[in-house]
Fold these 4 entries.
Entry 1:
Amino acid sequence: MILLLGFFLGVIITISEPDLQVLAAQVPSVPNMVLILSVAAGVGAFLVVALLRILFGIALAPLLVVFYGGDICDRKGLFRIIFWRLHSIRVV
């Protein structure tokens, strides 16, 4: 219940942020609501991660390794290579 409430509050607060609405208006290639909702969903998701960290007493260092490790792999294109290989495998 607390996680759902945390996600909902993160989304609502982010949607109502006036600076994000101004930023969305300045990006012509992405529809305003798509940009606002995607940022709001990300803020809500990471608020849930923060609440889980508090509830279960998870140290910050492992979370940073996981999230920064995913970012480094994505920058090097490793995720694309892995998913391309998985996608190219044909199931008979």
Note: The longest helix spans residues 32-56.
Entry 2:
Amino acid sequence: MNRDEIKHIADIAQIDFTEDELKSFEKNFIENMNLIEKIKKIDTEGLKEVFQVNGTENNLRSDEIGKSLTQDEATKIQFLKNTDILSCWNLWSELWRL
């Protein structure tokens, strides 16, 4: 890949490079593209696909159904954003009793 092709890609992506930036970027970009070409040539036939390479397994918590707001409660909370502090306090007190 040459400088003109890199500049063309940058123009398409609407990235403006100064000449110094382009010169610096050109070297790194070419190195990265060469690395990608080397990786493409690696024979992976017969290798097991992996998502994780360090042995970590699914450590996410289980989904559990918990208490959630009713539509009316959720609407009241939205109302809080446009209400004075005393009204908010009264409404929150009412919701906490539910």
Note: The CA atoms of residues 2 and 26 lie 8 Å apart.
Entry 3:
Amino acid sequence: MHKLTVLLGLVWFVATLSVLAADKPRETRCYELRTYYAAPDKLEALNARFRTHTTRIFEKHGMDNIGYWTPAENPDDKLVYLLESGQGVRGQRQTGDQGRIGLPERD
């Protein structure tokens, strides 16, 4: 009888924790891996633009710059970068594009 009481108490405890955890709104994260192909011989200018301008625009819209890479052998002048957003893909797409209209950086 004692084991049954302990087992039922444990089941009740786990069920209560599950209900409490399910009621909390969870923050979702969205990671986007993007690839940018620069015009021939313009990769250095593109890197400079991202370094001084574009990363700031991403941050202004709630996106975190995770990392930027160029392949060791890069005949296509490719830039690969990873962004993170707390809104998820749909939230960022719906509000991000509308929020950029009229910004001085885009004019």
Note: The two ends are 76 Å apart (CA to CA).
Entry 4:
Amino acid sequence: MIERELTIELTGKLAEQFQVSGLDQDDLERLARWAVAIESYRRGYLSAGMAADLAGADRAEFVASLAARCPSVIDLPDEDIERELSVVDAMMGGGKRP
């Protein structure tokens, strides 16, 4: 199995800003994973399932998050989006989506 690691150095004002924002190392890693997952999906490098794995989410959660965060990224037929969001609704106990 091939493994790759990504390291981003944050120094100076960037490091200070993230510290002031209250983001710890885990928060930054999670944010970076989601950003890379979303952009990789948007560019067609990864499927929704693979991007979800990268983000540490299941496919339904990833698709729902895309719909909420950046609707223009969704590249699924409407019926597939509705099916995915129905799964999320069921997982959340039937609550309404934002």
Note: The mean pLDDT is 83.
